[in-house]
Amino acid sequence: METILVTGGTGYIGSHTVVQLLESNYNVVIVDNLSNSSKAVLQRVEQITGKMPTFYQADIRDEQALTDIFNKHKVSAVIHFAGLKAVGESSQIPLEYYEQNIYGTLVLCQVMAKSGCKRIVFSSSATVYGDPASVPITEQFPTSATNPYGRTKLFIEHMLSDLHQSDPEWHIVLLRYFNPIGAHPSGLIGEDPKGIPNNLLPFVTQVAVGKRTHLSIFGNDYSTKDGTGVRDYIHVVDLANAHLKATEKLERLTGLRKYNLGTGQGYSVLEIVMTFERVTDEKVPYEVTERRPGDIAECWADASLAKAELNWSAQLQLDDMLVDAWRWQSGNPDGYAS
Ligand code: NAD
Ligand code: WQD
């Protein structure tokens, strides 16, 4: 049985990926410092899969801790989710983002190299396309960054690319996620943001469950179908599945590969609100406010490369994403603290 080390494995996307790895009979070793997640995730994962992953509460910047873990386990590949991800916060505390994301990945790769494990799947983001000139976005589009968070993702992509150039034994897949939403259909694991959510979906579900009075829609004067921002929302279960396909691909890979992970379909903020109300029968009061600085009008993926090379495509629809997000939120109004 192969062992996969998952950094950030108790987080939102990590936990869903861990479930699928366990269900596919991988051994899973999680390294997470719990800065943005809860240990309660582990019991929930066990409830779903009947298996408990090995867990280390450790920081990816801690070289000694990582070295000990790699000495203890014969790791065949790493799926690397750990890092900070709040776009707005990254402008307030940029050094923290550079340290955790870039330095953290650097330490991880150094320890991997020393231990002889040279296979990694990295969580990148559609944010590396900056403000794209057109949609849909292919992997060939020029990259840029408009905030420190995005710059860390872009820099890590370059760092991994340099690493691969220097030593072709490194097998590397960069996954550029569009907008992950939804939750496991069991309602046992899901997104549990600390404080006020930055992202649309957790805000919508927190309004519906009564934790917040109303949603602010950030602008309705974009040149989009109804004036509100359009994004490519993807079910976290589909996203997690792409990590299994990418991990399999690592075995027969030559070269570094980059894949967009989206559905290829864009929905506006108003469409999200209306669809959520329809499928859940809950009300989401909203008001339209100013545009949020840094937001782009529209963004969706051309995900045909992942289909061609990973044999992966998103299977779940927007209705599924919203029903599952609501099952998680309504069953766990205070997330894992419920
Ligand atoms: P998350 O915050 O739920 O998960 C990240 C996990 O990493 C958390 O459990 C946190 O405790 C852990 N962590 C953070 N810094 C760490 C460190 N220094 N050492 C060890 N553990 C650490 O976030 P998520 O939504 O699951 O995102 C996972 C990855 O995907 C991140 O790299 C994020 O940038 C990327 N991503 C997320 C989105 C999104 O919208 N959720 C979109 C594109 C890319
Ligand atoms: C979606 C739409 C908002 C909240 C961010 C990061 C990106 C990636 C995914 C990590 C936009 C609107 C939102 C609200 C609103 N993360 N909105 N009211 O901005 O597309 O992407 O998360 O890599 O890098 O930038 O996602 O969910 O914040 O916003 O009207 O309270 O919802 O303006 O049109 P975004 P989001």
Query: What would you call the quaternary organization?
Result: single chain
Please count the helical segments.
Answer: 11
Give the low-confidence spans: none
Strand content: 15-25%
Task: Assign the CATH topology of the domain at 3-182 and 234-262.
Answer: Rossmann fold
pLDDT averaged residue by residue: 98
Give the termini distance in whole angstroms: 35 Å
CATH architecture of the domain at 3-182 and 234-262: 3-Layer(aba) Sandwich
Helix share, percent: 40-55%
Query: What is the number of strand segments?
Result: 14
Strand order of the largest sheet: 3-2-1-4-5-6-11
CATH class of the domain at 3-182 and 234-262: Alpha Beta
Largest sheet: 7 strands, parallel
User: What small molecules are bound in this structure?
Assistant: nicotinamide-adenine-dinucleotide, UDP-4-deoxy-4-formamido-beta-L-arabinopyranose
What does this structure look like?
The strands form 4 sheets. This protein has a 7-stranded parallel β-sheet, sandwiched between helices. A 3-stranded mixed β-sheet has the order 12-9-14. The protein has a domain at 3-182 and 234-262: NAD(P)-binding Rossmann-like Domain (Rossmann fold, 3-Layer(aba) Sandwich), CATH 3.40.50.720. Helix 1 packs across helix 8 (236-251) and helix 9 crosses helix 11. The protein is an alpha/beta fold. It contains 11 helices and 14 strands. The chain is globular, with a radius of gyration of 19 Å.
